[in-house]
Structure formats: C-alpha cells, structure tokens
Design goal:
By secondary structure, the chain is an alpha/beta fold. The protein contains 12 helices and 8 strands. It has 2 domains: about 190 residues, NAD(P)-binding Rossmann-like Domain (Rossmann fold), CATH 3.40.50.720; about 80 residues, N-(1-d-carboxylethyl)-l-norvaline Dehydrogenase, domain 2, CATH 1.10.1040.10. It binds nicotinamide-adenine-dinucleotide (NAD). The site of nicotinamide-adenine-dinucleotide (NAD) has 29 residues, from helix 2, helix 3, helix 5 and strand 6. Belongs to the 3-hydroxyacyl-CoA dehydrogenase family. Keywords: Oxidoreductase. One of its GO terms (biological process) is fatty acid beta-oxidation.
Length: about 300
C-alpha cells in the first residue's frame, strides 16, 4: 500500500520522532517499518555490542528489501539516514512515540517505562510496549502518565506481517488509542485490531496453546518434528509448522508468554511443557541462537 508523504502525514498524525527500545528481532523490524514510513527513528540497546548486532540485522534486512526491489537504492539510503542508534535512553527526550521491544520480562520492561517517563519531555508522547503477554496496566501505572501508555503489538517479521494488535490498559485514554490507531494504520500501513488487556490478547491466546500442544506431542514421541510440521503445513496449509514457528518466535519468548498466560488463567493448556523449559535453560532458543527444534546456519 502507498504510504502518505510528510505533509499528508501531518494531517493525520502528530508523530514524527519515534524511539525503539531493544534491537532484537522485533525491535529491529519495528524500527525498519517506522524508518521506511519516513519517520525519524532512534533505536536503543543495552551495550555497544548488542547495538552493533542489531544495526547489522536491521541494515541487512533493508539491503535485502532493496535487492528484492521492494525499495529503490535511493530509498535504502534515505531510510538508513533516518535511523540513529544509542545505548543511552536519555537521548529519547524529544521522541513523540516510544515503542519498547525488549525481552519479555515484566521487571525489565517496568524499569524501562520508569526511565522513559523521566526522560521523554513531550507530555502527550505515547509510551507503547510490544509485549506479547505482560499486562499493559502494570507498565502504565509504573509511570506518571498511565493514560499515554498502550500496547502496540507487531508480528514477526514486522516488515512483512500486516497485523498489529492495539491493547489499551484500563488507564489508557481514548485519545491515546485513537492516535495509536491512526499512526499504525495511516502512517505504517498496518491493519490494527483491538484487544482487551488480557494476557495473550487475540492472536497469542489462540496460537500459544497450539504451539505448546505441538511441543507436548513431540516430547511424548507421538510423531517426529518433521512429521508434526509437515502435518500442519501440508494438511492445513499453514505456511510454517508449529515447531518451526516456535523456533522463529524464539523459545524463550514462547515460554515467557506461556508463563504469563498460565499466571493469568491457571489453565493447563497454557502450562509450558518441561522440554520447552529445558531447551530454554540449555540456551537452545531457536533461530536466534542457531539451535532449537532444528539447527540453523
Ligand atoms: N519473537 C516474536 O515472534 C515476537 C512477536 C511479537 C512480539 N514479541 C515481543 O517483542 C519483545 C521482544 O522480543 P524479540 O523476539 O525481539 O526478543 P529478542 O531476544 O530478539 O530481543 C530482545 C532485545 O532486547 C534487548 N534488551 C534487553 N534489555 C534491554 C534494555 N534494558 N534496553 C534496551 N534493550 C534491551 C536485548 O539486548 C535484545 O537485543 C518481547 O516482549 C516479545 O514478547 C515477540
């Protein structure tokens, strides 16, 4: 879809400067989506090394988009020029919107929201989280601006998947929800669906029990990993079987989301099978570590 230019954008949104916290697979993808939409994007990571890794991931993805003809060489250069990188969240002072995309850990995210609350100067700036399962209200009330905190949940890979889920906390104002919707739909070109602040929202509430069932099936020896994945790819026309998809998402993220959902509902279908936890403990997190249910280069 064609995205509005800057003057058209000014008519629908007051968001020009975006901050992205975390440059893992989701943060890098979200930063790419925002920069390709013409926004000024600053990306923060914990260390210089993590930042360099994230920058390489992001620029490689942009170069691939150019190679595939999705963006021109000029657009590639202009998009790269709109991206800046830092290890200091203090540099986010002038941001209109910050999207947090760090590890799925409530304490880590809460600390980041407290820092953002201190450093972001615009009083009506939106502080958003890409969390898959952590209650938004907990992040919101850790700040002095709970009406401006919202969940904006992108899907993996963010430059490819069209959907975002918008999750207002109990404290989020209608104005913040409306601005987030305009931004994601009119500026980023995504399709937004709304969900209540319940662990898993819409998509993960349906997806995670399915992934956990596949892992339990593999663990119990009912079928091989290939047969489980082929079963869903060839039998149900899923583009990717559940074990491959778990590796893509990251087994630590699957386990963390399952844990949050189990905490919320106490239903056995959300309980992470022992094998999943052991693989996380072993550092076999899927594609991002080169090894999960499958091995990767
Ligand atoms: N993986 C998915 O498919 C997916 C899909 C949608 C949403 N999410 C959510 O997105 C978030 C990130 O997931 P991911 O898959 O990108 O994880 P990831 O492990 O690939 O990346 C997390 C990044 O956060 C960084 N980080 C940790 N603490 C930080 C801090 N204090 N400041 C700055 N950076 C910090 C890490 O260095 C790492 O690069 C999670 O909340 C996850 O639930 C993930």
């Amino acid at each position: 879809m064609s995205r509005p230019n800057k003057s058209e954008r000014d008519d629908v949104t007051d968001i020009e400067r975006v901050g992205v916290v975390g440059c893992g697979q989701m943060g890098a993808g979200i930063a790419e989506v925002c920069a390709r939409a013409g926004l000024d994007v600053m990306v923060a990571e914990t260390t210089g090394e993590a930042l360099e890794f994230g920058r390489t991931r992001l620029f490689t993805s942009l170069s691939k988009a150019a190679e595939r003809g999705k963006i021109t060489e000029e657009e590639l250069e202009a998009t790269q020029a709109r991206l800046t990188f830092t290890t200091d969240l203090g540099e986010f002072a002038d941001r209109d919107l910050v999207i947090e995309a760090v590890v799925e850990n409530e304490q880590v995210k809460t600390e980041i929201f407290q820092v953002l609350d201190q450093v972001v100067t615009r009083p009506d700036a939106i502080l958003a989280s890409n969390t898959s399962s952590i209650p938004l209200v907990k992040l919101a009330v850790s700040t002095a601006r709970p009406d401006h905190v919202i969940g904006i949940h992108f899907f993996n890979p963010a430059p490819v998947q069209r959907l975002v889920e918008l999750i207002p906390a109990l404290t989020t104002s209608e104005g913040t929800l409306g601005r987030a919707q305009l931004f994601t739909e009119k500026v980023l070109g995504k399709h937004a669906i709304r969900a209540q602040d319940r662990s898993g929202f819409v998509v993960n509430a349906l997806l995670i029990p399915y992934l956990l069932s596949a892992i339990r099936m593999f663990e119990s020896g009912i079928a091989s990993r290939e047969d489980i994945d082929n079963g869903m790819e060839m039998g149900c026309a899923h583009p990717m079987g559940p074990l491959k998809l778990s590796d893509l998402i990251g087994l630590d993220t699957v386990a963390s989301v399952a844990y949050s959902m189990y905490e919320e509902y106490k239903e056995p279908l959300y309980a992470a099978p022992p094998l999943l936890q052991r693989m996380v403990d072993a550092g076999r997190l899927g594609r991002k570590t080169g090894s999960g249910f499958y091995t990767y280069d």
